Amino acid sequence: MSSGTPATDVLVLGGSGVDTIIHVPELPLPYADSYMIDTGIRTRAGQTGDFVALGLAALGLRTHHLDLVGDDPEGDLVRALHREHGIALTALPQPAGTKRAVNLVGPDGRRLSLYDTSRARPGDRFPPKLLRGLAGASRHIHVTITQPCAEALPTLAEAGVPLSTDLHDWDGENPYHEPFAHAADLVFLSAAALSDPERTLRRIAERGRARAVVATAGAEGAYLLADGELTRVPAVPPPAPVVDSNGAGDAFAAAFLYGRLSGEPPERCAHYGAIAGAYACTVPASLADSIGRDELLQRTATGPRP
């Protein structure tokens, strides 16, 4: 590596935390005084930033994750996850504690997530000097929409490094998501809450700097808007039974970024994303696992070409 080569392929900002997974008999869950959960209730590290970092590292990209993490048992799980997968983690102290969520998972793999928003403080910030240093040492930055990433956007813009973000189930109207949507060169989101995905994708591109916008639509594939042209990305059959959709969008984003940083065109990047997202749906919610580069490329070579 030459002295002018960035030390990191992707800096992932925010989105670390711990999920408690509960498999329920159906969603929505009817009211009852109690339910017996014979599959167990499990807690594991892994929220959106963790899963993107995990997916990137599994695909061979040098990944660094920056976030606020508590000095608590949940934070220990986050730190252990990164050690186990060889992912560099800068964990700044968070007195409010590590981010937490509860995921209710139905028999068909759908999930309902309950996020604990108390694990943040209004004054939380990433130190600008640290942020500039990590950004300047990276080829790309993926910004999650968790606190306090919104306050980091102006500093990241000054760094001049390409940005991506994931708006998740944005409805196209909530103003909280707009700074992320307009600051990123590449925008991911779910089509689940969109009445008109094409209109939302075009509004993001027109009002911001994005050259590519992707809305994932589960079994219906995805919408890709690249350089003004909208295309539909076919879904890819999962390689095993679907057990949980948690992390599928993060896997899609990681594989798309792998393609982008490898110089692939947007359509091929989206196909990589579809393969990785389908794989993620076959991973039990209690595990943190991502498709590897060899399997991704093998499935790309043997499946239909985009």
UniProtKB/TrEMBL annotation:
InterPro entries: Carboh/pur_kinase_PfkB_CS, PfkB_dom, Ribokinase-like. This is Ribokinase. It comes from Streptomyces alanosinicus. PROSITE patterns: PFKB_KINASES_2. The keyword Electron transport does not apply. The keyword Transferase applies. GO terms for molecular function: kinase activity. Keywords: Kinase, Transferase. Residues 183-284 form the Carbohydrate kinase PfkB domain. Signal peptide: none annotated. Gene3D superfamilies: 3.40.1190.20.
